[in-house]
């Protein structure tokens, strides 16, 4: 049974600060000095810098990874690796629906929008809304399909659409963003805006590398503890998501799948790119060296040793997909 609060949230569109990404808003070249100072102040208030990496400046956020050019490049590589390994952008049985005019898709935590643009190009009959708390990586309006729209939105504060809006909801690689309590809130919101008979799909990794040696084992143990203690983020959220789905009365037909991600040159080009991407994740966790009582130089040395070890041991990790269908809203009459 749903609580009264959950039921109320299904009937009310949540309040949220939403801004449509439109570069025309910034096209006025006749800024006065006052305007420039305001823009500079806004940028300084929006971001903060730790160990040379740029992060969103909001203490209420649990984000572990930076929001800068380096992370943008890493997330781009991550998308390409995901698409290659899964042989596509989704596994839910909704392909036929996506070719139907009027189909609506929501992409949560879209980042630079690569998944969104891919889907917009492949399924021009569908309309796609992509949301992210950081709009700085959104593509210019002339560099994405017309059936795609980007919105600045913090999913924790609610999804600013009525219930039963989207035919398909995608949320991928958000392991580093939410606490467990926030995951539950977000999932409830995503189910609220999902149409009856629509599909929701989650893609999250099990970051604990298999076939790891002593160095990598030591690193992974500290990584897991640090994320939980410092930012209240459970990096093993892939284990929780199937249970969250099962606890939602509205969802049915749960399916879980997995693929292994080889790490290292032992698996050729893919393995080489995969381990470089994996290393960049740890380089973005700027709090980890201090937690492990190491200098940055010592930490980078540890990373190099860990990944030499991974290549020797033919290490890999696993990424999971879970997808489920929202039950029909039809009421049976006996």
TrEMBL record:
<keyword id="KW-0489">Methyltransferase</keyword>
<dbReference type="GO" id="GO:0032259">
    <property type="term" value="P:methylation"/>
</dbReference>
<protein>
    <submittedName>
        <fullName>S-adenosyl-L-methionine-dependent methyltransferase</fullName>
    </submittedName>
</protein>
<dbReference type="GO" id="GO:0008168">
    <property type="term" value="F:methyltransferase activity"/>
</dbReference>
<keyword id="KW-0808">Transferase</keyword>
<dbReference type="InterPro" id="IPR041698">
    <property type="entry name" value="Methyltransf_25"/>
</dbReference>
<dbReference type="Pfam" id="PF13649">
    <property type="entry name" value="Methyltransf_25"/>
</dbReference>
<feature type="domain" description="Methyltransferase">
    <location>
        <begin position="105"/>
        <end position="198"/>
    </location>
</feature>
<dbReference type="InterPro" id="IPR029063">
    <property type="entry name" value="SAM-dependent_MTases_sf"/>
</dbReference>
